[in-house]
Specification:
Layout: E1 8-14, H1 21-33, E2 39-45, H2 52-62, E3 66-71, H3 77-86, E4 92-95, H4 107-115, E5 120-128, H5 133-149, E6 158-165, H6 166-172, H7 182-189, E7 193-200, H8 212-226, H9 229-258, H10 265-298, E8 305-308
Parallel strand pairs: 1-2, 1-4, 2-3, 5-7
Antiparallel strand pairs: 3-8, 4-6, 5-6
Helix pairs in contact: 9-10
The chain binds uridine-5'-diphosphate and magnesium ion.
Length: 314
Amino acid sequence: MTKNNTEISIVVPLYNEEHNILAFHERLLNSIESHEENFEIIYVNDGSKDNTLFIIHQISSQNQKIRYIDFSRNFGHQLAITAGIEHSNGNYIVIIDGDGQDPPELIPTLHEKAKSGFEVVYAKRKKRNGESIMKKLTAKLFYRLLAKITNIEIPVDTGDFRIIHKKIKEILQKMPEQHKYVRGQIAWIGFNQTFLEYDREERMHGQTKFTYRKMIRFALDGISSFSNWPLRVATISGFIVSFFAFLLIIYSLYQKFFGYTEKGWTSMHISILFLGGIQLIGIGILGEYLGRVSENVKNRPHYIIRDTNLNEND
Ligand code: UDP
Ligand code: MG
């Protein structure tokens, strides 16, 4: 197999998936082999602390269509898929989780749909099995909020499970931001995009790696990459609060000279706290954006590869 005639590259990020990978790999092979012979699978080991890498080495030594990228540490799901996409050779690239939640059986349908004239076909979650009510609720709210406040249409209820044309990959490589929100970047790129619906399955083994802390960070990346809305909210609330503060000042001056002044301890206390709060919010939001600016200015590599078999067998 040479680089140039690869039709589908399948990018799979893996972080501590030793209990899932073999079963996933088998499902993946079953669904792709009968559909398309010119494929490659790129497993990205994102700094796993278990036997994931060992298992990848084993399966890739048996089949030269299986490539792997081993990161020097955990860089996170978004950078793992970014690395996989950047090193893919296919005309089409599939992004799919390795825990069995995204059904590999859908890949042939995604591919057919893409070939009928779409640069992006994303898989939209109809049902999410086996995830906590809290996770489903926060995800739902977040996607709706994001859709409201950004000026591009990031599809709701969609993860990164999708197929993209290599054109999209070439443009992604020109988008060097450090805080990746890949599905937002792809939505931003445009071309013909459509979706297929599927039922999201339960994880085969283990637990989600997205703690609430990581989800909040991810949500902030999504929002700050595609919207200046939080900054605007800070400015607008600053104006509103200042307006009322101005009225209050006039009122208290009037009271002082023409009315009579109470001790006023309570109202003073409340307004100081209130203003302090608003100011902190504003500063915090500025900080969120400034922090991201400074990271982008540093221009560090997005990820570091310790080992790979990408350059073999060509
Ligand atoms: N993953 C990764 N790096 C991380 C966290 C997760 O490569 O830091 C992989 C993980 O192995 C899985 C996929 O990304 O294949 C999705 O992760 P997870 O199932 O934890 O997310 P969820 O499905 O709960 O959104
Ligand atoms: Mg999962």
